[in-house]
Amino acid sequence: MKDRASVLFLCVANSGRSQMAEGLGRRIFGDRVSVMSAGSDPSQVNPYAVEVMRELGVDLSTHHSKSVQTIDPATVGTVITLCAEEVCPAFLGNARRLHWPIPDPASKDPSIPREEMLARFRAARDRIREKLERFAAEEGMVELGPARPDDLAAVLALVEAAGLPTSGVVDAFPHGYVVAHLAGALVAAAGLEVHGKNGLLRSVVVTPALRRAGLARKLVARLLDAGRRHGLDAVYLLTTTAPEYFARLGFEPVRREDAPDELKRSSEFASICPASAVCMTKRL
């Protein structure tokens, strides 16, 4: 976040949404970004916000509501407003402005059961977390690098959750895999098996909240570069769901029976992927 290394979350009361965003932002951004929150009509931190954030190990018990008037505009690079049905606070200065409309989970209606209130705050919390994770990915805060042996369980879980086959992953792990981490959690992965002079791209997965943030493209590019350094002639893949996506990355359809014999003997070709899978290749 060059020249924008501070974020201010704004809502009206600075009691729920912006407080949760502040707590989550500090966890997700780490020391890369200074995080603040404030409101146009500050009150007090909502106990339900404190409780649902405690479920994630984030402590809001020492937080207090602050007026936007106490924030020096010169210290803010990005302002993110979280109001939905209310009028969002105005903020002077030259900061970049983003708007994430999150319905207010709070209510003054005493007849609403406690569990329903908790559910409302959890829904707001989780929506904010999704937006923060995507924001972090788009701002380049995700760490890309080679997989480590202790990443295996997380990669397998991500692959399985995406509906992709886990069989054979361990065969090329970790040296054939690259991964992405955000706030210590594994959020994307991709693997490259080497078969003779050709590579087989597989297990390209991204956690749902960060899809369309460009992570898959970056991981695939790293693997293609690794294939070139390894002296591979081409990289192949089999896909049942994303031929259009891989076409945008320069892969072209090819008849499965025309793939090199070494690839045909791989578990991916021989038994894992169905006959309906589209075979694609990219020359290196």
Mean pLDDT: 93
Helical fraction equals 25-40%
What portion of residues belong to β-strands? 15-25%
**Alpha carbon gyration radius:** 23 Å
H/E topology pattern: EHEHEEHEHEEEHEHEHHE
Structural class: alpha/beta
Characterization of this structure:
The protein has 284 residues and is of the alpha/beta class. Helices cover 31% and strands 23% of the residues. It has helices spanning 17-29, 47-54, 114-138, 152-161, 215-229, 243-248, 261-264, 267-272; strands spanning 6-11, 34-39, 78-81, 96-99, 143-146, 177-182, 185-195, 198-206, 234-239, 252-253, 278-283. It has a seven-stranded mixed β-sheet, with helices on both faces. The longest helix is centred in the middle third of the chain and has 25 residues, at 114-138. The radius of gyration is 23 Å and the shape is elongated.
What can be said about this structure in brief?
This protein is α/β, with parallel strands linked by helices.
Topology summary:
Layout: E1 6-11, H1 17-29, E2 34-39, H2 47-54, E3 78-81, E4 96-99, H3 114-138, E5 143-146, H4 152-161, E6 177-182, E7 185-195, E8 198-206, H5 215-229, E9 234-239, H6 243-248, E10 252-253, H7 261-264, H8 267-272, E11 278-283
Helix pairs in contact: 1-3, 2-3
